Amino acid sequence: MERIFCLFILLSGYLSAHAQLTLDDCQKKARENYPVIKRYDLIEQSKQYNLSNAAKGYLPQLQVNARATYQSDVVTIPIQLPGLTIPVMPKDQYQAVVDLSQVIWDGGMIRSQKQVIQAGSDVENRQLEVEMYALEDRVNQMYFGILLFDARLEQNRIFREELERNYKTVTEYMKNGVANQADLDAVKVEQLNAEQSLTQLQSTRAAYLEMLSFMVGESINPQTVFRKPVEISTLSGEINRPELLLFDAQKELFDSQKEVIKSSLMPKLGLFLQGGVGRPGLNMLSNTWDPFYIGGIRLNWNFSSLYTKDNDLRKIETNKNTVDTQRELFLYNIRLAENRQNADIQRIRDLMKQDDEIITLRENIRKSMEAKVANGTGTVMDLMREMTLEDLARQTKAAHEIDLLIAIYNLKNTRNN
User: Fold this and answer.
1) Who has the most CB within 10 Å: 218, 253, 307, 367?
2) β-pairing, 92-105 with 290-300?
3) Contact between 56 and 94 (Cβ < 8 Å)
4) Pairing status of strand 225-226 against strand 268-279
């Protein structure tokens, strides 16, 4: 059991040290961890509450009214008959009424209100999608930044190994009298410079890793291997940005608001039933508390909305035109970004065509200098210079490879395809 346990620990450590992470993994985890994601459920809940409230307009509506009044004069019957007393209405009157009404036809008001609620919810969701989409670019920056530092760290490792090999070689030269202590010190200085560069690269990579860990909501092992995304050969020219869907949703909301205005101009038909008690009741000449009820059909037609109808519709149309202008401006800026990013991609591809040739030439020069140092016709300082130039050429190639991926994925992010 102890052997199995030890084997399990070793295997777990090996898998942890060689765990891999992809850009898609980071995007998915960052989206799930982003606090804004909770707003999707909140928006849906709010929409359901509002739709439920609007639908309750079809339910019977109950009102309770009560009033007590005193009036300066009342209706009297100016007739006097012998032996007959004609009752007089009281100046103080009281009434309590329960009013029950049921909508039969509301001119489409409730239906149009539901449309506004649905359209408003869609706008909120689209705005949230725009905010979530901006998160993808931030994750890309962190991920490709780590890839760039990994490439530089790999080149630093190769350079340090080369320096170590040369340090041993110069040590042998000293034994044979070909080199001196100053030559060995020159190699040592370059080794120390490479170590300083290593420390700086590791520190900056750790900072990027910490930020990415915060974004994805989990600690990422420093030994995790970040897989390089596949270079996309072709990208569709179609633009599928969530901002375009937001513009469409906003226009649909304005169209729904138009329907509300039109519905407000329609007559409203419904049933009603009133029951209550008052002094007087329906018999205005009674001075006692009497119960009563009234039932029937009611038609309401409010024409006051006609005063503002045209202005309200023009204002909505102006808002729609504003959205169209914003859409055109957005697409204009997207096209500008596309042109710049396509130019960046082509520029980097052109630079990469010479990278391998430059490295090959630098490698040949460095080997030639090593031979000169071995023959005593060259100095170690010259060799260190050539090694540094070769290392810079390799770093430049590694940087161009990552820069190309960044440019391609920036274009992909600009178009969302």
Assistant:
1) 253
2) unpaired
3) no
4) unpaired
Task: Identify the band that residue 177 occupies on the pLDDT scale cut at 50, 70 and 90.
Answer: confident
- Rounded to whole angstroms, the Cα distance separating 200 from 93 reads 92
All residues at 6 or more sequence positions from 236 whose CB lies less than 8 Å from its CB, including other chains: 415, 417
Strand partners, 96: 66, 277
Tens of pLDDT, residue by residue over 250-288, are 999 999 999 999 998 899 999 999 999 998 888 877 788
Angle between helix 109-175 and 23-33 (nearest 10): 130
Helix axes 23-33, 181-216, angle to 10 degrees: 50
Q: Exposed, middle or buried by CB within 10 Å (0-12, 13-18, 19+), for 247?
A: buried
Confidence of residue 336 (pLDDT cuts 50, 70, 90): very high
Record the pTM.
0.79
How confident is the model at residue 3, as a pLDDT?
52
Cis peptide preceding 280, ω within 30 of 0? yes
Distance set, CA 154 to CA 147, 164, 274, 404 (Å): 11, 15, 87, 18
- pLDDT value for 247: 96
**Total number of residues shown for the chain:** 417
Domain parsing of the chain, residue ranges: 18-68+89-317
Q: Which amino acid is at 106?
A: D
Fold type of domain 18-68+89-317: Outer membrane efflux proteins (OEP) (1.20.1600)
Q: Which of 22, 139, 128, 217 is nearest to 413 (CA)?
A: 139
Q: Are 345 and 390 in contact (CB under 8 A)?
A: no
Q: What is the DSSP letter of 107?
A: T
- Token pair for 290: 């009497």
Q: Which of 55, 60, 54 is nearest to 98 (CA)?
A: 60
Neighbours of 155 (CB within 10 A): 21
